[in-house]
Amino acid sequence: MTQAVEESKAEAGGARRQPAGRKSQQRVKDILQAGREVFSEKGYERATTAEIAQRLGVSEATVFSYFRGKRELCARVIADWYDEIIAAIETGLPRESGPRQQFAFIVRTHLRLMLVHGTGMCSLVLSEGRAKHHELSAELTALQRRYTAPLMRVLAQAQQAGQIRTDVPLRLMRSMVFGPMEHVLWDATLGQRTPDIDATAERLVDVLWTALQPPAPAVASLLRLKDDLSEAMRRYQAAPQFERDEGEGSAAANGKRKTRRVKTGD
Question: What span, in angstroms and rounded, lies between the C-alpha atoms of 151 and 43?
Fold first, then answer.
């Protein structure tokens, strides 16, 4: 019988068995560990519950007695991964330090734990963890909110202390921070290589924290003026030659008329 048929039967049977005894709880842990290994190595599409069961030395029916199918098992594997990273951030966050130090800890910990066991699990989390068709999508969404909560708290504290800008919503700042980190992780997973975590985190923190700084009004005005002048020059150079000549001729004529008025005393 194919895995698809087995999963259909298992899912049609209703809710999975809840592990009541110690032996059942250990069985669930073993299945999740084997699932993490297989999903990390092969990704979601190529992974099978048959291989997960084979690694445990049990029947595939045993896996289905605890999980309705591969999709639910994958979602639980990702949820456990999130829980581990959330626990590491919440317990290790240096709350006695300033917002920048806490910010740096979150960035460094995020990169390190996402890649600590290679790129396989990271690739799974980045792809399947963002899919909307998970059976446990609501649980995964809640986990992602919990996962970003420490960063949101640090950013809110930094705003209150006047260390970062207040004209940008916290949700947008969150995207500004996690977006670049996600690109670093995708580069690592696609290239199958782990970057220097500490060096990469330090550079990211410098760039991101600088981008979050409150703008200096005088400097901002000068930068806007520079941009306006650059845009005007670009449009002038892109204009056809006859329009540029005509504009220069009009400017010269206006200058001559002003000169004549000055000489005649008008």
Answer: 29
pTM of the model: 0.70
| Contact predicate 94/102, CB 8 Å | yes
Residue tagged 């809110």 (tokens): 156
What are 97-131's pLDDT values in tens digits?
999 999 999 999 999 988 877 778 888 887 766 66
Question: Which domains does the chain carry?
Answer: 3-68 (1.10.10.60), 73-211 (1.10.357.10), 221-264 (no CATH)
What φ, ψ does residue 216 adopt, rounded to 5°? -80, 125
Nearby residues of 203 by Cβ (< 8 Å), 6 or more positions away: none
Task: Convert the pLDDT of each residue in 127-150 to its tens digit.
Answer: 766 666 655 566 677 778 888 999
How far apart are the C-alpha atoms of 233 and 231, rounded to whole Å?
A: 5
With tokens 């002003």, the residue in question is 258
Q: Tell me the residue type at 151.
A: L
